[in-house]
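SAMPLE LOG
Freezer: B-3
Tube label: C17
Construct: single chain, 494 aa
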Amino acid sequence: MPRLHMHVTDAADAPLRAALHELRGTLEIPHHFPPTAQAEAESAARAPRIPVAGGAVSTEHTLEDATDLPLFTIDPPGALDLDQALFLSRRPGGGYRVHYAIADIASFVTPGGALDAEAHHRVTTLYFPDERVPLHPSVLSEGAASLLPDRDRPAVLWQLDLDAEGALTSTSVRRALVRSRAKLDYAGVQRVLDDDTAEEPLALLREIGLLREEQEVARGAISLQVPEQEIVERDGRYTLAYRAPLPAYGWNAQISLLTGMAAAELMLASGTGVLRTLPSAPDGSVARLRLTARALDIDWPHHTSYSALIRTLDPRRADHAAFLQECTALLRGAGYTVFDGSAPPPADALHAAVAAPYTHVTAPLRRLVDRYTSELCLAASAGAAPPAWVRRALPALPREMEAGTQRANQVERACVDLVEAALLRDRVGETFEALVVDIQDKDPTHGTVHLHDPAVIGPVETAPEGPALPLGHHIQVRLAEAEPGRAAVRFTPA
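STRUCTURE (predicted):
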């Protein structure tokens, strides 16, 4: 889960918007698509070219008609780039069937064309507090390729059969024409699930989600419920607050996770694929995290694993939220690993947090690699060779994805600094209650504090030769600096 999710409303102040605009210029974020790429997108939106066996494309190819499936989407309110739609049902002999439709962006992007080149340049959709910089032109990502309700759309349609305990028993994937029936949001889904008024296909989201969470526990996987940071208006002024993710968000994520694991197994069996891998955290990192837990007065018995501990935490509590934030350090080092028939699948095929082989395959409108993993899975499911254009792109994909992920992380960090500085710039000199959540090993007078209100995490430093910061203790801090675009938030002990 991303560390932060921020949104600036139309009522937000002009200086922050100006600083965000300046930031996009500094980071050389593209404002528009090149004319040739935009023209290709508009032409493809009118006449998609469906890939067929052998890697060819056709404007005449007739897709299997799966529009009878009453699919639905679950996304944040206002989202239009809808990658996934699902339909859940019970199997007559017991267990469950998951139909999961993924936007088929490959039907709109010609390999080697201008639009393809621009996607390889952008790599991912970038999210700023005031706007979104898309991977593909909106005529596709929010239009012809998006799984919008009551529209026929080409899709990559997964069928995942589960047993009564939620374990995967069979996988198939094919191209099909689909039609979503409803565009739902997380709050609305959670409400009808809590009220027990949801119809069975939606009610099964909780049932299957809980079973998949039990499967996750049995694998020893790591599921971080890191709270989101959002901008809220209080008494006529803007501030920051944390919001714990709804259970429905986690249950929906379990369907995506299930598909990513099934996709990895398909590719491993076929001998060609792209895996999302993460090495196990080094012992030193876990030991440091235990010290942080002790400092935050979080009980971590030695016989309890890290993955089991985090499931007991409440992200609505400030101390637990601070610890969960520190836990994200153990998830660093993720990458993409390619294998292509000429050598055996990698020995380090596991994603440590998933505790299983895993790949990204469910967000092709927003992430470059998913277009390729979808094609590899379609070929593997059909017993066919991967398209040549996919194989040609594989060697460069890990490097491209790493560069795109680094840019997205850089955007997130810079946006956090800007928003925090903008919301606190009129409060320089004020004191706040805070929790010291980290100190530097080489200089314990420098560290990080987690404010109780507003929900800000920022650096703190004492005077030269001053006392060490008390890790895990509550202290009063004074806001020393906060000016968007010029000085990030910085605190000193009060």
